[in-house]
Write a structure and sequence with these properties.
By secondary structure, the protein is mainly α. 80% of the residues lie in helices and 0% in strands.
């Protein structure tokens, strides 16, 4: 599958990288910095119940993703509909994100807000199954790591650019611009419209330029053949010992990374007394350092090898995590935290390119569905363990040891996995 002559490979690679830039608006504006905070503080009846309801909605979305990712991947493989399914996911994500504009600062709007965010999260994650599976069609084999790393870096950059635009045009101006009413929280609600437009505009190049399969079956045929062949595809994947060892290793260190990001701000606030503005600044600087790390490693990743890049990055995260837990100095904490951020991006981008190398072309979407599953299925383990250890020892520092242990467990399993030609 290759683009038409006028669609140069460079343009297609740029379009693929722009999709990471596009999607990051949802995770940055809706899930992390703006809308989630608005929901907890202004929409939910109170912060405690709001936090619990938000977590439940995200957990429900996670279960839905785990159930749908592999079957839809099989349908895409059997029918050649990966690009069309990606387009459907982008459309659903854009529509649900834009509809958050209608969520007013009233408790009665909480259910619709949670439903929209949950559906958007499913569309976002499932869309990335088809997006990730395109990597080997987009980039030459010798440049998979570089392209994956640059795309991951562009995702961090895109999220920060959208957040900066949101802060300058919508959140910070007083009085608000564009006739928006602060009393109705319209500047914050308009951030959802900005994110939706960002997603739509920057996703279009890939939807236009992505290579289409030479053979495509009807939707009915794809559904019947794909669902009928799901069991066979899963059994074939289960028989690939190297693939499963990698997926389990990734599951472990990804749980560590996700727990780090979920509780890093809480740790900083509780242990070092950081206020809301300092925690926000910490989150932004961590994203900057992660983007710089992903871009820097991208230039060397294909020479180092994907597996080596992951081992270096995850090993460094575990090594830096120990002094982060021991230090009493806020200045040293900031320095070490920026070091942690530098290795987050390379660990994630190299995991994606290694998965692309490990999967056969005919089953790529289905197996990237398993890849999505491995990043979700045990997502509750890290937070639950951290909470239990924190409660048992009465210490945030003790609880955060869970992050280091998960990183070390994933590193150890990957380091002891035999190497074959696909681990290039």
């Amino acid at each position: 599958m290759s683009p038409a002559p006028w669609r140069t490979r460079q343009a297609t690679i740029l379009a693929w990288c722009l999709f990471d830039w596009a999607g990051s608006a949802f995770s940055t504006i809706v899930v992390t910095f703006v809308f989630a905070t608005y929901f907890i503080r202004a929409v939910a009846p109170d912060p405690v119940s709001g936090t619990a309801a938000w977590a439940t909605a995200q957990a429900t979305a996670g279960v839905t993703i785990a159930v749908l990712a592999a079957p839809l991947g099989v349908v895409a493989d059997r029918g050649g509909h990966g690009r069309r399914l990606l387009g459907l996911c982008v459309g659903l994500l854009t529509a649900c994100t834009a509809a958050l504009w209608f969520v007013r600062p009233h408790a009665g709007d909480a259910p619709i807000a949670l439903a929209l965010v949950a559906v958007a999260t499913v569309a976002f994650e499932i869309g990335f199954v088809f997006y990730n599976a395109m990597l080997t069609d987009i980039a030459p084999a010798a440049r998979l790591g570089r392209v994956s790393g640059l795309a991951w870096a562009s995702g961090y950059a895109g999220g920060l650019a959208c957040l900066g635009l949101c802060l300058m045009l919508l959140i910070n101006p007083d009085p608000p611009l564009f006739g928006l009413r602060a009393a109705a929280a319209e500047p914050v609600r308009a951030a959802a419209l900005l994110a939706a437009a960002w997603i739509a505009v920057f996703s279009l190049p890939l939807l236009w330029l992505a290579p289409a399969p030479a053979n495509r079956s009807s939707w009915h045929s794809a559904l019947s053949q794909g669902l009928g062949g799901l069991g066979a595809s899963l059994r074939a994947a289960a028989a690939d010992r190297l693939l499963w060892r990698f997926l389990i290793a990734r599951m472990l260190y990804t749980d560590g990374l996700n727990t780090l990001f979920a509780f890093g701000g809480i740790f900083a606030a509780g242990t070092f007394g950081m206020g809301a503005r300092e925690v926000l600044l910490l989150g932004i600087t961590l994203n900057i350092s992660a983007g710089v790390g992903a871009a820097g490693f991208a230039l060397a990743q294909d020479r180092l090898g994907d597996r080596t890049t992951i081992l270096v990055a995850v090993g460094a995260l575990a090594a830096l995590g120990i002094p982060v837990l021991l230090t009493r100095s806020a200045v040293l904490f900031w320095i070490l935290a920026l070091g942690l951020g530098t290795f987050v991006g390379p660990a994630q981008s190299a995991s994606r390119s290694l998965m692309a190398r490990l999967t056969p072309e005919a089953k790529r979407n289905a197996q990237f569905g398993l890849y999505a599953l491995s990043g979700r299925v045990t997502g509750f383990v890290g937070p639950a363990a951290l909470g239990a250890v924190t409660a048992a020892f009465g210490s945030q520092r003790a609880g955060m040891v869970v992050v280091v242990l998960l990183l070390l467990a994933g590193w150890t399993l990957l380091a002891t996995t035999p190497v074959d030609a696909r681990w290039a």
